């Protein structure tokens, strides 16, 4: 049984406490939001981002020593997109715009993490699909995902305008009354959350940053990529939340474009567990090779799409 919903008001609501949600909360505060509430359905923040162990990409940055051109990151990304770039002119231009947004802002992202948040990103490695080394991580023992997430979270918690709520599951996106009555696109006015069997509604603009659905192997993954149903994953086995977006009229795109990581560790005492531990790409970037019957059979730092074609 649940109790009737209690309504609260706030300035900005961010759903999902992985790196995307933490970065969104930080951006909102730097844009002078009066308050930010970050909602996470798990008991701990960090999502799957905290597991990242290879680094974060950016170019051109002061940490790179290898000669490079300013557009190398952009060119590499377009190439790695592979067949998804062979679409209509409109779709291609949309993808180009998104790739430009990603790559052109990567220097600012690296500088923000290094200078404002204090993350060590001094080690740069060449990884899959790179023409020049551009994956940044620290020189210490803390994996880059954990280092970035924990330091960014600490900076947020130093701001009195920020509030983190864990164990809160968003079950509905709320529309404004005017939006419901009109025939136009929906205007999202808040969320309804479930926590400790209590329903609460929060009013305010919503940033939805819940990540992907790689751990939802028997539901969303099976729906959009039935060939991958039940695939073991390093992602936590959590249901995807995309249905909440569809319920308010969102159109999902590229749901079948699921990227498979080539390597993972298998516990010999639990070989058939669906939750695996990542054998990070940095292992291959630093010289690890893949063997089959004693023979090397692939360029270990080729694009991920090539690895999938080989069935890795």
Automatic annotation (TrEMBL):
Keyword Disulfide bond listed: no
Pfam name, any one: FAD_binding_2
SUPFAM superfamilies associated with the record: FAD/NAD(P)-binding domain, Succinate dehydrogenase/fumarate reductase flavoprotein, catalytic domain
Domain FAD-dependent oxidoreductase 2 FAD-binding: 12-306
Source species, domain of life: Eukaryota
Keyword annotations from UniProtKB, A to Z: Flavoprotein, Oxidoreductase
InterPro entries in the record: FAD-dep_OxRdtase_2_FAD-bd (IPR003953), FAD-oxidoreductase_2 (IPR050315), FAD/NAD-bd_sf (IPR036188), Succ_DH/fumarate_Rdtase_cat_sf (IPR027477)
PANTHER family: FUMARATE REDUCTASE
Name this protein carries in UniProt: FAD-dependent oxidoreductase 2 FAD-binding domain-containing protein
Organism of provenance: Sporothrix epigloea
């Amino acid at each position: 049984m649940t109790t009737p919903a209690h309504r609260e008001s706030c300035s900005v609501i961010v759903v999902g406490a992985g790196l995307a949600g933490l970065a969104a909360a930080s951006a909102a505060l730097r844009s002078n939001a009066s308050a930010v509430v970050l909602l996470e359905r798990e008991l701990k923040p960090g999502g799957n981002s905290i597991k990242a162990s290879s680094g974060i990409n950016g170019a051109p940055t002061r940490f790179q020593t290898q000669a490079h051109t300013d557009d190398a990151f952009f060119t590499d990304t377009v190439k790695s997109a592979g067949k998804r770039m062979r679409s209509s002119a409109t779709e291609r231009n949309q993808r180009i715009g998104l790739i430009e947004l990603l790559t052109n802002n990567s220097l600012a992202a690296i500088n923000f993490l290094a200078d404002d948040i204090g993350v060590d990103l001094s080690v740069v490695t060449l990884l899959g699909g790179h023409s020049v080394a551009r994956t940044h991580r620290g020189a210490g023992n803390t994996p880059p995902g954990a280092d970035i997430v924990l330091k960014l979270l600490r900076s947020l918690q130093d701001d009195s305008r920020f509030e983190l709520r864990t164990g809160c599951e968003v079950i509905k996106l709320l529309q404004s009354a005017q939006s419901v009555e009109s025939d136009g696109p929906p205007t999202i006015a808040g969320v309804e959350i479930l926590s400790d069997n209590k329903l609460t509604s929060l009013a305010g603009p919503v940033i939805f940053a819940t990540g992907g659905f790689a751990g939802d192997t028997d539901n969303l993954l099976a729906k959009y990529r039935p060939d991958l149903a039940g695939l073991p994953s390093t992602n936590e086995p959590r249901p995807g939340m995309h249905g909440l977006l569809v319920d308010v009229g969102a159109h999902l795109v590229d749901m079948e474009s699921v990227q498979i990581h080539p390597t993972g560790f298998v516990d010999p005492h639990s070989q058939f567990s669906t939750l695996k531990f990542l054998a990070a790409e940095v292992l291959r970037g630093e010289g690890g090779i893949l063997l089959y019957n004693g023979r090397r059979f692939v360029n270990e730092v080729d694009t991920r799409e090539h690895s999938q074609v080989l069935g890795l």
